[in-house]
Amino acid sequence: MDSPAPLPLIEISGPPRKRGRAYGEQAREQVHASLGYYREAMTGPAGLSWEEVTGRAAQWRPAVGEFAPDLLEEVVGIAEGAGCAEAEILALNARSELLYAAAAGAEREECTSFALLGEASGDGHTYCGQNWDWRAGAQDSVIMLRVLAPGRPTLIMQIEAGQVGRHGASSAGIGLNANGLKSPPSCGLGLPQAFIRRRVLEAPSFPAALKVIFSARQQIAANLLLTHRDGFAIDLETTPARHGWLYPDGGILVHGNHYQAFLPGSLAETYRPGSADSLYRSPRLSAALQSARDETTGHGVRKVIGAGLRDHFGYPESVCCHPDPAEPTVDRWQTVSSSIVDLTTGDYLVAAGPPCGAEYTPLPWNLYSDADSPPS
Questions:
Q1: How far apart are CA 371 and CA 262, in angstroms?
Q2: Domains parsed from the chain with CATH numbers
Q3: 286 near 273, Cβ under 8 Å?
Q4: What is residue 376's predicted lDDT score, i.e. its pLDDT?
Q5: What is the C-alpha separation between 175 and 198, in angstroms, rounded?
Q6: Helix runs in the chain, H state only
Q7: What is the pLDDT of residues 237-284, one digit of tens each?
Q8: CA-CA distances (angstroms) from residue 305 to 70, 131, 172, 308, 333?
Q9: How confident is residue 165, by pLDDT bands cut at 50, 70 and 90?
Q10: For the stretch 315-331, what's the b/e string if a residue is b when 16 or more beta carbons lie within 10 angstroms of its beta carbon?
């Protein structure tokens, strides 16, 4: 398999509409690649037209405007810069919610996230990251986005072009990694994950990040793993109704795509993980990270983490996920990017595509350099 090209690096700054427009202009090619893919992926399962999809996406405009009016302005700017409709950018930001509805709750969930605290890393640093597993057809739209917004922490995110939020880390010393979860039935209209996650990453402190998660009303379930550079981590299994939580065991916290902290009552009698491979991916990565205790340098610790993220047990549905040729092309999944973030030093390392075929390359941006706010 050929190695994917390095992920495009895009940096935006200034007020919301200006940075959105700059985002859309710089990522125009990737935004249109994303729209092209989702036109196929979203219209096929439910037999909808693209106009019906974007019409459904537009229903979130009032809720997003109330929750984060600046991010709605950024969406408008992205559409202007990329030369597409605002409703199309809203659809990209609500792609999980739209796909989940089209699949009647049977949408597959993937990703393996981790936190490695100083007590478990031989160099004493705090790390976080994940293998971001998603639809292989979206690979060409994945970018690295750095956001400098006045009065807010500087953000670095791995994201699909056109989205305002996904996962990453901030100059406040907070890392956010995310995984899909089977969602209980939702009553009413909740917020798409992209907007909630962006607000979490913009939080000036760890308590403020938690407050976002516990106060926002979401549309679908999601697992959110929060790590702080001071050596604290918590995993939150969030649903439209209630949340559950987990803490590290011996300085290691790993989460896949099955409920590990609690099971929503509405799913209790019939629950089956959307991705059964999650049942072995989580313990496999946890076991691999144990060896980080024996390393005394950052290079050694990162090598251990990288080896764990390249694990092929259960291939192709492994920690390092590869497309299954038995699946229809539009439904094939893979690791679209992999990250190792040293929250102690601010180094952010990324491998494009399945990490077995790429090296972890440090970004030219450090979390704590040229940041609007110091670590808290």
A1: 37
A2: 9-13+109-362 (3.60.60.10)
A3: no
A4: 44
A5: 12
A6: 16-26, 28-46, 50-58, 61-67, 69-82, 86-93, 95-102, 193-202, 206-215, 278-289, 298-309
A7: 999 999 999 999 999 999 999 999 999 998 989 999 989 999 999 999
A8: 37, 11, 23, 5, 22
A9: very high
A10: ebbbbbbbbeeeeeeee
211-215 own/partner pairs: CB under 8 Å, 24+ apart: 213/238, 213/243, 214/243
pLDDT of residue 374: 41
Provide the pairing of β-strand 9-13 with 232-238.
Answer: unpaired
Amino acid present at 356: C
Tokens of 89: 């950018």
Mean pLDDT confidence for 74-92 = 98
pTM of the entire predicted model = 0.95
Considering only CA atoms, which of 273, 173, 162 is closest in space to residue 223?
Answer: 273
- pLDDT tens column, 116-132: 999 999 999 999 999 99
Across the range 317-344, mean pLDDT stands at 95
Q: Write down the residue that tokens 């984060």 correspond to.
A: 68
Identify residue 97 by its one-letter amino acid code.
Answer: E
Distance CA 298, CA 303 (A): 8
Q: Which residue has the tokens 């402190």?
A: 205
